[in-house]
Fold this protein.
Amino acid sequence: MQMGKLNKLQSFRELQQNLSLQVIENMNSSVMIRKLSIILQNMATKLCHQLYKKDSEHKCKPCPKGWLWHEDSCYLQGQESNDWQTSEQECRNLNASLLKIKNKSVLDFIKSQTIDFWLGLSPSKNYENPKTLKEIISSSDWLINNTNGFSGEMYCGCRYYDQLVYKHCAERENFICEKLADRVKTENTLINEEPDGFL
């Protein structure tokens, strides 16, 4: 009787150990799958960038039709010039915001735009002297969606060539909206619509 209980206990311990080993193996497989998924996503994004260079409206593009794609953001030039507040509202209507230049890559990207445009900087009651765009990359003045107390008598930041200049917010300028790009869909990048050999 005692021997039977010991054998059952031994069998239970072996099962428990096998189960523990299986759980560890499954966890290792999950980590491996996660890593492979990240690698696949990065490959799809790089491939989509190459396809985008050839066809700016390729189906893999993670931005809405008509928007430009740069790194992890989408950009759209407004259709007409507006005052700063209307420009900001038009961007918000598109689930976007006025362009913010927060790194050198974005600065280089917008240099290709020939127009001058409003920037997503907080409006100021006081006129500020012009600065180079490079100087404002690390500015704490980038707008944080709070325009309480806004009036047209305030000064708003505008890109003028390679400078940041402040103008009355009621003046009319062009504007560019920006928003975060969607993730590149792997299947839209790596799989043909009609794979070879299929009808």
About this structure: The helical segments are 2-54, 84-93, 104-110, 186-190. The chain has four helices and eight strands.
